[in-house]
Design brief:
Elements (H helix, E strand, L loop, with lengths): L3 E3 L7 E13 L8 E2 L10 E3 L2 E2 L7 E7 L5 E2 L2 E2 L7 H13 L3 E10 L7 E4 L5 E13 L10 E8 L9 H17 L3 E2 L1
Parallel strand pairs: 2-11, 9-13
Antiparallel strand pairs: 1-10, 2-6, 2-8, 3-4, 4-5, 6-7, 6-12, 9-11, 10-11
Length: 190
């Protein structure tokens, strides 16, 4: 049974909450230390450094977990504990949910727009939530995945092989990574 539902509008009593997570991407950091390849090289990738090619975006891999509460793929994340920083929370949540250690590089996005999946209801609650999702971006430093009780599955996906059943804000984040962030490395507000 689905415990989490994504809403088009808030229902009844509601609260504003903050959700934290991270886009953990193999190959992400490489592209920012590379320069653009010249058009006449006819290379499949758009970045070159010292004769080596950067990993094309479609071959980069993002860490996703299949959430047990809604059956959708999501980036790892969760809620802050009192006294934690955002970075400490995200590192802890990624480790708890996936067993992966990470280096977090930057703020990726802050999403609050109800049109992209920020309105939610957990069936055990008597209120709806308007969740402000804050995602950081980083790279893995370990790779031995172990899923938690909160997940049905955890794995890295190449961008060209992503599942269709993504949490709405994660689908938006992936599109924003492909089209905006990877080119400008500037945090996105929606």
């Amino acid at each position: 049974m689905t415990k989490l539902k994504f809403l088009k509008k808030l229902e009844g009593k509601s609260k504003v909450t903050i959700g934290l997570g991270a886009l953990i991407i193999k190959g992400y950091g490489d592209q920012f230390s590379f320069k653009e390849a010249s058009p006449e090289t006819n290379l499949k990738c758009s970045y070159v450094k010292a004769g080596k090619l950067a990993l094309p975006i479609e071959d980069q891999e993002i860490l996703l977990e299949l959430r047990a509460d809604c059956g959708l793929w999501c980036v790892p994340g969760g809620r802050m504990n009192p006294g934690e920083t955002i970075e400490e929370c995200v590192k802890r949540e990624v480790k708890e949910e996936t067993n992966i250690d990470v280096v977090l590089d930057d703020l990726f996005c802050v999403y609050s727009d109800p049109k992209i999946g920020t309105l939610r209801h957990y069936t055990e609650d008597n209120f709806s939530q308007h969740v402000i999702d804050i995602f950081l971006i980083g790279t893995p430093t370990s790779y031995k995945i172990t899923k938690s009780e909160e997940s049905l599955d955890v794995k890295f996906f190449k961008f060209k092989d992503l599942p269709d059943n993504l949490v709405p804000t994660v689908a938006t984040a992936i599109n924003d990574y492909r089209s905006i962030y990877r080119l400008k490395k500037k945090a996105i507000l929606r």
